[in-house]
Amino acid sequence: MNLKNRLAQTDILTAPGVYDGLTAAMAECAGFEALYLSGAAVSYTRLGRPDIGLTSVSEMADTMTLIADRVNLPVIIDADTGFGNALNAQRTMRLYERAGASALQVEDQTYPKRCGHLQNKSLIGADEMAGKVAAMADARQSEDTLIIARTDAIAVEGLSAALERAEQYLESGADILFIEAPQSNQQMEEIITTFGARIPLLANMVEGGSTPISSATELQERGFSIAIFPGGIVRALARTAQDYYASLHANGSNTAFMERMFDFDGLNEVIGTNVMLADGARYDRQK
Asked: Are 3 and 218 in contact (CB under 8 A)?
């Protein structure tokens, strides 16, 4: 089932953050119906740097290609600001769509952007952002490729301005709205009241961020259609990696950490080594 058809259902769609083929495969095995390829997670893991606009469009497209080669789930991909003006946003649409993305999330920050839950963000004009949305809609090859218009205006201009901007992006062709970083449950309710009956809404759950953390069930009850948990996997793995390296340095071996890691055979089972070797053997024509 493609993403567009899935969003026609009443149950909320929960999309965990992923950043490579391994995390995508593990999320698929856990039973999720869609994935979120987080620009922040790619910056954290590939660059070891914060989410301040350092990742490039080609790095994201390459990552999307590898994930699409590994899993069969629809992927929502972070397109940041479109990496420039409306023409850049069109190129981003073409690259990401060819790479296998099902939806592109574009935002109205200036470039380079920063994480939606960091302070001191700045915005482009609403008309310029609306032009990017329209340009991306014109560039897509399939109507099943969705455009998620994100506004970061709450932190900069307040909720009323964010709602006005979102209205303009809706009129410009957005398929989903993402009003980033509401600071209270009351603000979330205002977003739902304004748009919930007209267009799918996305909620972003960032541990320690500006928005109160809610479960997917709670978000569905409020009226959201999509819940993303973009950076949780990196925070979990980073904490584990910190403990692992400290243990290895202190003990000179992995013995003390064995209960918290896969052994050789365990990891090979997770990544399907035996299945792939068997598949390869079927094509071996050598005697």
From this structure: no
C-alpha–C-alpha distance, residues 146 and 100, integer Å:
12
In the structure encoding, which two tokens stand for residue 46, read together?
């590939």
The 10s digit of each residue's pLDDT in 187-232 is 999 999 999 999 999 999 998 888 999 999 999 999 999 999 999 9
CB atoms within 10 A of CB 102: 22
Chain length of the chain? 287
The three-point CA angle 5-41-162 to 5° equals 65
CB–CB of 70/78 below 8 Å? Answer: no
The confidence score (pLDDT) of residue 82 equals 97
106 contacts 88 by C-beta, under 8 angstroms:
no
Burial of 36 (0-12, 13-18, 19+ CB in 10 A): buried
Burial label, 285 (beta-carbon count in 10 A; 0-12, 13-18, 19+) = exposed
Four-residue CA torsion sign, 181, 108, 73, 231: negative
Helix axes 264-271, 21-30, angle to 10 degrees: 80
Whole-angstrom distance, CA of residue 247 vs CA of residue 233 = 21
As given in the structure block, the two tokens for residue 116 are 């939606």
Q: Which residues contact 104 (CB under 8 A, 6 or more apart)?
A: 76, 77, 79, 92, 93, 96, 97, 136, 145, 146, 147, 148
The rounded Cα 199 to chain-centroid distance in angstroms is 19
